[in-house]
Amino acid sequence: MQEVIGSTPIFSTKATYQGCLFCFMAYYTYILYSEKVDRYYVGSCQDMETRLVQHNSGRNTSTKAGINLCKKT
């Protein structure tokens, strides 16, 4: 299983016309480390929980090789 070893919220501005000129949307930059392949992966997203599930289920081709199929007991 790949684990998040660092996460930093990043704010970006996006022009909207729903009552405000600029709204701030939180994004996260994260670093995954896989012991299996001894490699780091840097990514960004808005929803960390969903993104980590996507990484660990093999839906991301960039991190698929780093999945540890052995379950921790």
TrEMBL record:
Alphabetically ordered keywords of this record: Membrane, Transmembrane, Transmembrane helix
InterPro entries: GIY-YIG_endonuc (IPR000305), GIY-YIG_endonuc_sf (IPR035901)
Pfam families tied to this protein: GIY-YIG
Transmembrane segments: 15-33
Coiled coil region boundaries: none
Signal peptide (UniProt feature, chain positions): none
Record carries keyword Membrane: yes
All residue ranges annotated as the GIY-YIG domain in the record: 25-73
Official protein name in the record: GIY-YIG catalytic domain-containing protein
Organism of this sequence: Pontibacter virosus
